[in-house]
Amino acid sequence: MKFRKFGRASLAAVVSLGMAAGISACGVSNTIDYVFVTNSKNNPGQINVYYADSESGALTQIPDSPYMTSYRNPVALVTSPNFKNLYVIFHDDNTIVQYSIGTDAKLYPQHTYNTPGTFPNAVAINTAGTLLFVTDTYQPQYTAANPGPGAVIVYPINTDGSLGAPVANGNLSYYPLSTTLTNVLNPVAVNSLTQNPVNATSPGASYIYVANANASTGLGSISAFGVGSGGALTPIAGPQSDGTFAAGTTPSAIASTPRGLFLYVTDSANNQLISYTVQSSGAIIPSQNGPTRTDVFPDAITIDPRGQFIYVANYTGNDISAYTINVSTGYPTGVAAAGTYGVGTGPTCVFVEPALGRYVYTTNFLDNTVSGLHLDPNAGTLTTVQNTPFVAAGQPTCIAATPHGNHAISTPTT
């Protein structure tokens, strides 16, 4: 997941009475997912919580929604693999908050943590649910007034969902992305993957990948790390002079397939999607076919739980680009039925719900809504769901969800 600074004035959202009331056919008995949306407009920030209807994909806010937080500018969030906890990143207060998720979808704040540096902007969690990865825009000695490189922080996750002290890196509590002002790497997104082939009896190696903006060169890059059992990070050398892997001009989001075979990065400056194959060493190789075109200003990406389709949210295009993943090469090709699918204004995050993998949602920053679309699991095509869009508290930034009840999705192909 990732965050991008929003310096634009927001558009006034004109919301109909039906939309404001969250009218839909959804009841708790029909709920397949609990959906969580962070909102940055108000101070402090807010979190909307919705029920997702199993038959239509429509969203209905739970009675206590939205939840007022105690911190500013929530920009990223992730749920634990056991779906009992939600971790929210608050950019302006350098804060992580752990929320317990009730069986009725209600949120209960548990613990608050400060990151070592400033302006945390992305979060990921490992498959086992034992490690949380957070990126700080700046290392401790740097600020917006005195800018420098960023860092990755690794937190062990205790059995109750609380976070332990950051994993030590020598005498540091973080892992620098670069150490000099001649090569300033600032993170924009982070992805955690575990290579686990179908029918494997135990997970394979674990890696994290950080997409960076390079203030020194004006080019994008990816920093790759192997992840030890205790969370210690080991850099994986890339072919560039600083040990990173090339990632276009302005990387904006990053995602991997469920089995950890392929990695994808969006480049918002060049309107493209860059594809990589993940080797057993954790090194990545760009596709021989080159980047794939997106619509204007791609800034978010997700992959369906089956590992068959990629969905990219285009901020300026106000739409989603859809792609089919080649099982052998990982190369994405546009879904044949349509190049893009319209959503709200200024989509900032895109997400496929985890229960059935049948509905796609976007947070629309500029019109204060959430769009919902039905995903055809055979073709990857999208159609709008009942009563979309759905009202959000204001300037929604990102989205996550947990399944409600027992559901089974077929084994992922990639």
Q: Tell me the fraction of residues in β-strands, as a range.
A: over 45%
Q: Please name the fourth-level CATH homologous superfamily.
A: YVTN repeat-like/Quinoprotein amine dehydrogenase
Overall number of domains: 1
Total strand count, please?
Answer: 33
Q: Please, how many helices?
A: 1
Please state the overall shape, judged from the principal axes of the Cα atoms.
globular
Second CATH tier, the architecture: 7 Propeller
Main sheet?
5 strands, antiparallel
Low-confidence stretches: 1-27, 197-202
Family: Belongs to the cycloisomerase 2 family.
GO molecular function: 6-phosphogluconolactonase activity
Pfam family, one: Lactonase
Protein name: Hemagglutinin-related protein
Report on this structure:
This is Hemagglutinin-related protein. InterPro entries: Cycloisomerase_2, Lactonase_7-beta_prop, WD40/YVTN_repeat-like_dom_sf. Keywords: Carbohydrate metabolism, Glucose metabolism, Signal. Residues 1-20 form the signal peptide. This protein has one helix at residues 17-21; strands at residues 31-39, 46-53, 59-61, 67-68, 74-79, 85-90, 95-101, 107-114, 118-125, 131-138, 151-156, 175-176, 185-194, 206-214, 220-227, 233-236, 245-246, 251-256, 262-267, 272-278, 284-286, 292-293, 298-303, 309-314, 319-325, 332-334, 340-342, 347-352, 359-364, 369-375, 382-384, 390-391, 396-403. Strands 1, 2, 3, 4 and 33 form a 5-stranded antiparallel sheet that branches. It is mainly β. Residues 1-27 and 197-202 have low confidence and may be disordered. The protein has a single domain (17-403), classed as YVTN repeat-like/Quinoprotein amine dehydrogenase (Methylamine Dehydrogenase, Chain H, 7 Propeller), CATH 2.130.10. Helices cover 1% and strands 45% of the residues.
